[in-house]
């Protein structure tokens, strides 16, 4: 449902990693404003989590994808089949993400439900490939994708800086540290950042210690950690940073 009084809300439908750490659902954030209504990522477990949160699926106008790993994109077939057969969607839907989206869409649909990629939905479906650092407006949201470093295969991988009804929201997606994240999150009203490990450095993912080093440069107005492994989750009570939880609601007022 959309928001009144000029509030923009982000709800963590899922904030987990790919491995179900601590029983958290895969990544999916639901953003609603006075008009805006969209998802950021739709991981394999996201339809279950969306229904558990009683989200009105047909009101979602846009699904914005950071990358094509199953914990961020694997929920698309379930969402699409539900839209077709149970939610009886008639409203148009936009799925937007990195270049290659139409191919990855067909792959994920065919792998999950053979024949489903050829089934024409009863609503307008647009698959939109976004370009690096090229700002577009979709479903009333100003979207700027930034390239991040997450793997050699299956890319490109995106972080997003969004303007939603006057608020700046940023999300790192999955990535190791790259200076691009400064432009992604600088002075944002809300910066959602991966903190996969507490201090262990690994390729392709971000750890909290590295993120903290750069916070004085990024200066987000509010930081929320997400996509945490069991290692990071075990340290949560000792760190002075706000962390995501499934079902957590963030309100951005004017
Ligand atoms: Zn992930
Ligand atoms: Zn990933």
Report on this structure.
The protein has 254 residues and is of the alpha/beta class. It is built from seven helices and 13 strands. The strands form two sheets. Strands 6-5-4-3-2-1-13 form a seven-stranded mixed beta sheet. It has a six-stranded mixed beta sheet with strand order 7-8-9-10-11-12. Strand 11, helix 6 (208-218) and strand 12 form a beta-alpha-beta unit. The longest helix is centred in the middle third of the chain and has 12 residues, at 101-112. The radius of gyration is 17 Å and the shape is globular. The protein starts with 7 loop residues before the first strand and ends with a strand. The mean pLDDT is 96. It binds zinc ion (ZN) (2 copies). One zinc ion binds at residues 17-18, 27, 69, 71-72, 174, 227.
Topology diagram in text:
Elements (H helix, E strand, L loop, with lengths): L7 E7 L13 E5 L4 E4 L5 H7 L9 E3 L5 H4 L2 H10 L7 E5 L3 H12 L12 E5 L6 E3 L2 E8 L8 E8 L2 E5 L8 H6 L4 E5 L13 H11 L4 E4 L3 H6 L13 E4 L2
Parallel strand pairs: 3-4, 4-5, 5-6, 10-11, 11-12
Antiparallel strand pairs: 1-2, 1-13, 2-3, 7-8, 8-9, 9-10
The structure holds zinc ion (2 copies).
């Amino acid at each position: 449902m959309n928001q009144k009084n000029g509030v923009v809300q982000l709800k963590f439908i899922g904030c987990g990693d790919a491995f179900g750490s601590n029983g958290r659902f895969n990544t999916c954030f639901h953003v609603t404003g006075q008009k805006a209504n969209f998802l950021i990522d739709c991981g394999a477990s996201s339809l279950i989590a969306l229904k558990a949160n009683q989200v009105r699926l047909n009101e979602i106008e846009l699904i914005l994808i950071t990358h094509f790993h199953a914990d961020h994109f694997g929920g698309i077939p379930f969402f699409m089949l539900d839209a077709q057969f149970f939610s009886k969607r008639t409203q148009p839907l936009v799925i937007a993400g990195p270049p290659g989206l139409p191919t990855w869409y067909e792959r994920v649909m065919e792998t999950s439900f053979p024949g489903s990629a050829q089934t024409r939905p009863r609503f307008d479906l647009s698959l939109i490939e976004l370009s690096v650092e090229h700002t577009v407006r979709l479903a009333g949201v100003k979207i700027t994708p930034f390239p991040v470093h997450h793997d050699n295969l299956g890319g490109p991988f995106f972080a997003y800086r969004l303007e939603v009804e006057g608020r700046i929201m940023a999300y790192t997606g999955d990535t190791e540290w790259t200076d691009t994240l400064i432009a992604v999150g600088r002075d944002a009203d809300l910066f959602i950042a991966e903190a996969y490990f507490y201090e262990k450095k690994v390729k392709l993912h971000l750890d909290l210690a590295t993120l903290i080093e750069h916070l004085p440069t990024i200066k987000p107005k509010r930081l929320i950690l997400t996509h945490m492994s069991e290692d990071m989750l075990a340290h949560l009570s000792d760190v002075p940073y706000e962390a995501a939880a499934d079902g957590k609601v963030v309100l951005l007022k004017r």
